[in-house]
Amino acid sequence: MKTVTLKIDNSIYEKFFWLLAHFSKNEIRILEQSDYESDDAYLRSKNGMVESIIQARAEPDHLAVSLENLDW
After folding, report:
1. Can you list the positions of beta strands (E) in 24-66?
2. Strand, helix or coil at 72?
3. 0.85 cut: is pTM over it?
4. Which end of the chain is less crowded, N or C, counting CB atoms within 10 A of the terminal residue's CB?
């Protein structure tokens, strides 16, 4: 199966879900449903995120880790 994230305009929301209702639960499953929020609003909603970013910005450049040394 594939997972797709969509941003659906309010004007077609009901029609879109009407269409989805015509598929079986084996074909399409709604995993999550939420109102859209900007990346900024999402990050600000996470506890400690703003403080973490402020601390990271204040860190001196010589303490930073270069891209090639990041442990992904």
Report:
1. none
2. coil
3. no
4. C
